Structure formats: C-alpha cells, structure tokens
Amino acid sequence: MNPDKLKIAILGGTGNIGEGMVLRLALQNLMTDGVKNEVIIGSRSRETADEAAKQALLELGNCGFDTSKIIITGNTNLEAAKAAELIILTIRFDHVLPLLDESREALENKILVTPVVPMAKEGNLFIYKPPAEGSAALAIQKKVPESTKVVAAFHNIPAGKLKDIVKCKAVHDAIVCSDDAEAKKLVMELAKNMGCLRPLDGGPLNQASIMESLTPMLINLAKLNGLKDLGMNFS
Ligand SMILES: NC(=O)c1ccc[n+]([C@@H]2O[C@H](COP(=O)([O-])OP(=O)(O)OC[C@H]3O[C@@H](n4cnc5c(N)ncnc54)[C@H](OP(=O)(O)O)[C@@H]3O)[C@@H](O)[C@H]2O)c1
Description:
alpha/beta, Rossmann fold, 40% helix
C-alpha cells in the first residue's frame, strides 16, 4: 500500500464528520509534497454522493485552493469500499454492522478506520453505550474478515473544527488504536497530514473503548458549559 497514492473511501461521507474528513484528506494533495490521494465519498445513494463530491470541490475552490490537484469522487458505499484501499466509517453505530455485512467481500485485506461512538441520549445528556464486545471497534473487528486491519481513530475530533478548513488551524490530539502496527502508522501519518491533528499512539484496539467513551463526555461538557466543538489536548 503506497501511503502517498491512496484511494480512501469515506462511507457516510455525506454526513457531519464525513464532510470534514473529505475536505481535510483531499487537501493533503496540496499540503504535503508527493501526496496524490483520491477521496471517494460513499453514500446509500450514488446521486447524493456525486452531489457531495461536487459540493466539496466547489467549497475548496471557493476557499481559494487549487482543485486541479484534488481528486474527490462519489459512489454508493459498496462501490466506494470496493474501489478503496483504506475505508473510513463515518456512520452511526446502529447502521454500521448491517453495512459491514453487505460490504464484507470489499473489506478483505483493507484498512478499516472507525471513529464510531455508540452512545445514547439520556435526558439532556449523552451516555456511552457500548455493545457486548466492549466497544464499537471490537464489535466491528468481530464482523469483518480476518484480513481486514481495523484502526480506531478520530473519535474525539469535533466535526465543526474539521469542516472549518479556513479558520480552524487548532491542533487537537487524535488517539489511534490498532493491533496492526503498519495500519496504525499509516493512519497516524494521514492524521498528521490533515494539518489540524496531532496523532498519538493509543495502543491496541481493545483500548478503543476508553477513547469512544470520552466523546459523550466532550459533548456533555460543551452543552453544560456553553461551549462548542470541544476537542482534547494532552500536555
Ligand atoms: N459528528 C462528530 O463530531 C463526530 C465526531 C467523532 C466521531 N463521530 C462518529 O462518526 C459517525 C458519523 O457521525 P455523524 O455525526 O457524521 O453522523 P450523521 O451526519 O448523522 O450521518 C452520517 C451519514 O450516515 C448515513 N446514514 C444515515 N442513516 C443511515 C442508514 N440507515 N444506513 C447507512 N447509512 C446511513 C448518511 O449518509 P447517506 O444519507 O448519504 O447514506 C449520513 O450522511 C458516528 O458513528 C459518530 O459517532 C462523529
């Protein structure tokens, strides 16, 4: 797998955090010498994905970026997963496992990145609601072929800051967990090249539950304290 010429599928890339991922990953081709990644937006609908790809290119152009070096396309989730070497799941936990069943063959030998946080609303606040496996990451690992390298990352990154490509240069820490050292290294490199993140090695995949559980806390802290788009920095 060539880390400078990757096909990256963002399944559910039409959504909140997906949009920021698309923009930041596409911009790597301008920010980092020699990088020629292709970003494929996945959706349940090919038309929605195509439209999201058009909008992302338009937004990058409107923000003054040279889009001639940027490749963003759209497709169904399944076709996007088939075409990609690295797949990011930006879909809510409830919908993830059925999608993995449908896409099982397309996941063989690929890197699968999960920022998925299983959580539920209780009253005004969110609580972490992991599945029986202990975390979304472990439930996902159980579902996919053995050859799929699962990496947990980006759970604690607020969509609002990822999307704000012009104003937001703030650097948040992005913890990355995986049992596959090479896949973890590659995702950490991608995170670093996004320009607004400092990747930190978070250990093996079974550590992902800790990271997942912090997201409802960040959302609740923002709500209770009149703040917005909270991320984390360790120092
Ligand atoms: N938002 C954040 O700040 C943030 C931060 C860290 C992690 N995350 C995690 O990232 C994931 C996505 O969060 P989000 O806020 O971006 O979600 P979202 O905007 O609500 O949804 C993302 C996409 O999911 C697709 N979708 C909706 N219903 C579906 C279904 N029944 N089956 C398959 N796909 C469906 C939609 O795409 P189409 O309609 O185009 O198919 C939608 O655009 C979640 O697991 C969340 O925990 C979010």
